[in-house]
């Protein structure tokens, strides 16, 4: 998949004293590392916080996407086995429980991290 990114979790660390730059941090061997500084787009809009939160959520979103890919692969296998599997209903029920867990435990927290509350 190419080069690996800095492992998470990343975090939004707040705005600078002048209030136009937001900072994203990640854990490092010697403490926290600065991943990025995010400036307001035109210096006045105040969008650096929203953009920084979205960037800080990137490792969580990537993990959610990888799990979603696996879940979609599983449902494809279940649907392909529909005609030949006597326990299709049980397998579908199991997948639906996994999907509900995935949405609650993986997707929703990743989305909440990316959104200003």
Give structural notes.
By secondary structure, the protein is of the alpha+beta class. It has helices spanning 48-56, 58-80, 88-114; strands spanning 11-15, 21-28, 31-39. A 3-stranded antiparallel beta sheet has the order 1-2-3, covered by helices on one side. A hairpin with a 2-residue loop joins strand 2 (21-28) and strand 3. It is elongated and about 65 Å long.
Provide a quick synopsis of the model.
The protein has 117 residues and is α+β, with helices and mostly antiparallel strands. It has helices at residues 48-56, 58-80, 88-114; strands at residues 11-15, 21-28, 31-39.
For the biggest sheet, the summary is: 3 strands, antiparallel
How big is the Rg?
20 Å
Strand tally, please? 3
Question: β content, as a range?
Answer: 15-25%
SSE topology string: EEEHHH
Low-confidence stretches: none
Compute the average pLDDT: 81
Assembly form of the protein: single chain
Q: Secondary-structure map with pairings?
A:
Blueprint lengths: L10 E5 L5 E8 L2 E9 L8 H9 L1 H23 L7 H27 L3
Antiparallel strand pairs: 1-2, 2-3
Helix pairs in contact: 2-3
List keywords for this structure.
three-stranded antiparallel β-sheet, single chain, alpha+beta, 117 residues
């Amino acid at each position: 998949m190419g080069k690996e990114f800095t492992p998470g979790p990343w975090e939004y660390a707040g705005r600078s004293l002048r209030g136009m730059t937001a900072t994203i941090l990640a854990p490092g061997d010697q403490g926290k590392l600065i991943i990025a500084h995010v400036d307001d787009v035109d210096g006045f809009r105040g969008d650096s916080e929203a953009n920084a939160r979205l960037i800080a959520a990137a490792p969580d979103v990537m993990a959610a996407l990888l799990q979603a890919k696996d879940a979609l692969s599983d449902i494809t296998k279940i649907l392909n086995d529909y005609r030949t599997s006597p326990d299709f209903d049980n397998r579908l029920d199991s997948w639906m429980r996994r999907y509900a867990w995935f949405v609650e435990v993986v997707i929703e927290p990743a989305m909440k991290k990316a959104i200003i509350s």
